[in-house]
Amino acid sequence: MIRHLLMGTVLAGWMASSAAAETVNILMEGVPDTEYVKTLLPDFKAKTGIDVNLEVVNYAEMHTKLVPQLVAPKGSYSAIVVDFYWVGEFTKAGWLSPLDERITADKIDTSVYVPKLMDLVGKVDGVTYMLPFYNYAMGLLYRKDLLEDAKSKSDFKAANGIDLAPPKTWDEYLKQVAFFTKDGMHGVVNQGLRPDPIAMEWSNYLFANGDEYHDEAWKPTFNNEKGAAALDQYATNVNKYGPVGSASFSFDEAFNVMAQGKAYSYITYNFFRAAIDDPAKSSVVGKVEIMPVPGPNPETGASLNGAWGWAIPKSSPNPDAAWTFIKWVESHETAKKRALQGGSPTRTDIFDDPEVNAKYPYAQALKKMLLTSHNFPVFTYTPQLVEVLGRELSLAVAGEKKSADALATVETEFIELAKKDGKLK
Amino acid sequence: MRRFLADALPHVILALFSALILLPLLWILRVSLTDKLTAYKIPPEIGTLGLMNYVDIFADKPFVLWFANSLIVALLATAIALPVATAMAYAFARFNTGGAFLRLGVLASQMLPPIILLLPLFGMFLLAGLMQSRTAIVIAHLTFALPFLAFMLVAFFEGDVQRLEEAARVDGATRWQAFRLIAVPAAAPGILAAGLLGFILSWNEFLFALVLSGPDSQTLPVGLAALETHAGVEIAPLAAATVLSLLPVFALLPYLRRHLIKGLSLGALK
């Protein structure tokens, strides 16, 4: 055994990694969009001669790994991707380099991005720190085959007095949820796990009732009758119309209920639309469609926005090479290639591209979803707000707290956090 | 009949406990041979079994790199920690080096949450230009492997081995000869058991490897964790990679069992 250990010592002579002349190191998460970027890297190498090292880690651990790197005067990462959760923290700490000078010098047109995405993972207080990479706005996945069933159509019309069709309003959707909960089928499956899954999903319910989290002066606007109604509706959906256990489902469990054909609908991240047509993951291939979460009226969408942005940290060892990479990966040509592989675009010109629309007929629905989406509060304490929301929403769903009381607590803590961040006086 | 029941009962209880341990492993094995849809079916279905996930982790994911990094890091950390820890343990047992204070210090280092050590190590590796290298992970793993192995080995050098050494000294052996030719061979089962445990500790370590590694130096635990993504858990490839990552530990298990038991019950004067 000792001999084997010694052999191992000799075997490991090649310990330190050798560095190429110019290499862009990027820390990313293992999502489909990362894989699409990976497949296109040979193009970048051929054009610029620059190597790219994509380091892929688990999302939950990314922040742990990033922060020491960002605090260091010179870290290991040339560029990073930033979840909207971290935008407030990273910009307030001064860890990201402003990109405006580079954008002006290279005549980059940022007006092609969906404006809500630039607000979320682009500009902060008028300064551009990021270019939106991919979106994970939430949409309504629904079973289109069930909506086309003749008997369901007549039964629904008889019971509710309206046609059974993709819901135009939130109220219509809630009626469909109740209607389809029968014969072992669930009207909805929810991702009720605290803190992130429930907080993100419930946000759609809040917007669907016509509320927002705060006004322009950051004064909270959710602790009212509409907010309480949104929370009551959520609790009813979980407890009455959803499968047992959905109060502790994350998106993976909830998606699998939908993928196994046991639920009519699921409000979730739009990249699951492509996954639901993958026969290795789904038994309802071709039977599911996506649409913006319906709002209080047919003109208003209620989807929660979500996205990642490319940024150059101030600790970047080679910011110029990092910018060359970002320009390439966000160019129309590369963004289109990513979208054609199934990526989630952030540019309106990609959503309007004929080839993209031919391959993904739901591209326009996704564009509409983004244009009518709502942003979660982005400030230094976004993760803490998610924790508070997760805790209070879960208590309300479990029946341990009344909806109004839960929202009152969230409001109190939201005010404290916003004051601490200087957003509220 | 009563005798049959008395004989059978312990076997039934043992079988139940064995199932408790084995069933999750068998479940992982089954998932590794199927797709995500079948893996999550309720009630469970066997479905069509195949090796597609194993092909996937070798063809589309850097499983070989993760595995090689883990193996190199664990072997090196153990190879460095074991002789140093053996010498430390011998010094504690024979010369009471540093007294109770130093022994307590070694034990206390085991009680520190790893995150306390992580940031100072990060700063030092950054200054030394060792960030994202396997060297950094090996050194970080020594911070827990060395005190753990030293503390474990002290017990093997105390007690009857000392009398054997004294006999050798009377016969003219030097202190070094007594250590090399008497104490170490006598404690060999313990040293091997400690080495195997050190290897497993390093093989499974996550936090240091996560923060200190780079794309070329990611270890298995860090690589496997990346299969739990923002877009869901890639459960089938994850299961396949988990099955393969268990292999070295399973390969070491017979040695571990034999030497650990031997080590614990060793008595040279029996």
Properties at a glance:
heterodimer; A: 425 residues; alpha+beta; D-Maltodextrin-Binding Protein, domain 2; 2 domains; five-stranded mixed β-sheet; three-stranded antiparallel β-sheet; 48% helix; 12% strand; disordered N terminus; B: 270 residues; mainly alpha; MetI-like fold; two-stranded antiparallel sheet; 2 strands; 78% helix
Name the overall outline of chain A. globular
CATH topology heading of chain B: MetI-like fold
Oligomer state of the chains in this structure: heterodimer
Count structural domains of chain B. Answer: 1
Description:
The complex is a heterodimer of chains A (425) and B (270). With 425 residues, chain A is α+β, with helices and mostly antiparallel strands. Chain A has helices at 2-11, 32-48, 59-71, 84-92, 100-105, 115-121, 144-147, 150-160, 170-180, 196-208, 225-241, 251-259, 272-275, 319-329, 332-340, 348-351, 354-359, 363-371, 382-397, 403-420, and strands at residues 23-29, 51-57, 79-83, 123-124, 127-128, 130-135, 138-143, 265-269, 288-292, 307-311. In chain A, a hairpin with a 2-residue loop joins strand 4 and strand 5 (127-128). Chain A is globular. Residues 1-20 of chain A have low confidence and may be disordered. Helices cover 78% and strands 1% of the residues of chain B. In chain B, helix 3 crosses helix 12 and helix 5 packs across helix 7 (134-157). Chain B has a two-stranded antiparallel sheet with strand order 1-2. Chain B has a single domain, classed as MetI-like fold (Orthogonal Bundle). In chain B, strand 1 (228-229) and strand 2 form a beta hairpin. By secondary structure, chain B is mostly helical. Chain B is flat, with a radius of gyration of 23 Å. Classes of the chains: A alpha+beta (425), B mainly alpha (270). At the A-B interface, helix 1, strand 2, helix 3 and helix 12 of A face helix 4, helix 6, helix 7, helix 10 and strand 1 of B.
